[in-house]
Amino acid sequence: MIDGSFREAFHAIPAFAQQSFADFELIWVEYYGTVDPAVNAAIAAEAPRARLLTLGRTGVYHSSYCFNAGICAARGELVLIPDGDLVVEPDFVERMWLLHERNPRLVTYNYRYNEPKDCHRDEVDLAHLRQTGVLTHPSNWGGCLGVRRRWLVELNGYDQHPVFATGDHGNDFDMYVRLKNLGLEVCWPREPVLYHPWHPGTLAFAYTHRLQALMTQDRAHRLTTLAYRGIDSTRDSEPPASVLDAIDEARRGFEQHGAAYQMAPAARFGA
């Protein structure tokens, strides 16, 4: 799980650390150099199963660096990359391993049930989330990715290109497209599921997400798999100039017109 010094609740750490499965680790990656004392306390309470990585980076938050640091540090065969503010059942990790154990080419995304704002409780209660959670985004590529670590390394990790440098990241959708382009078997199992307590900013609009999608849509058409800027810099390349031009044009449109701006068809579909 990752953070850029923006999270206000850390219930995901005990939820994922206190699992029925015996052989796993939890890695929390902080982008900046300062760690919330609550994170330190939560990690210490779950040690040695849980550990903290601090990148000490500066400037605009770029979650791909956190994801890639976690991938490099991971010691397990299967990597689960959940959002950092989720709650899951105590057998979540065990059930995910049983799914993946049978098929090394499997890629999974879990359904995420959101707590509605008008049902929100300050205290995180799994029984309450089971009862009130609503499936609002069935695809939700950022809820929890499950995949063998070898495939993430083959793709050179998440894309660290500056286009993805924002907290409103679309690198989850980008990773989905590249895993699909690699020919892996992607599915959304009906169970186990994720529960997401409501917090301010849930499902907020961000046009930067659409700009990032332009790069990903181009990948989808050309069936490319490698990150433009990834874990191993010797494997890096530059995006097509036409894609960067389309992103710049769309950025100007959103800055001038806001959410009402409509991208040109060629830009929307990466033509």
UniProtKB/TrEMBL annotation:
<protein>
    <recommendedName>
        <fullName>Glycosyltransferase 2-like domain-containing protein</fullName>
    </recommendedName>
</protein>
<dbReference type="InterPro" id="IPR029044">
    <property type="entry name" value="Nucleotide-diphossugar_trans"/>
</dbReference>
<dbReference type="Pfam" id="PF00535">
    <property type="entry name" value="Glycos_transf_2"/>
</dbReference>
<dbReference type="InterPro" id="IPR001173">
    <property type="entry name" value="Glyco_trans_2-like"/>
</dbReference>
<dbReference type="InterPro" id="IPR050834">
    <property type="entry name" value="Glycosyltransf_2"/>
</dbReference>
<feature type="domain" description="Glycosyltransferase 2-like">
    <location>
        <begin position="67"/>
        <end position="150"/>
    </location>
</feature>
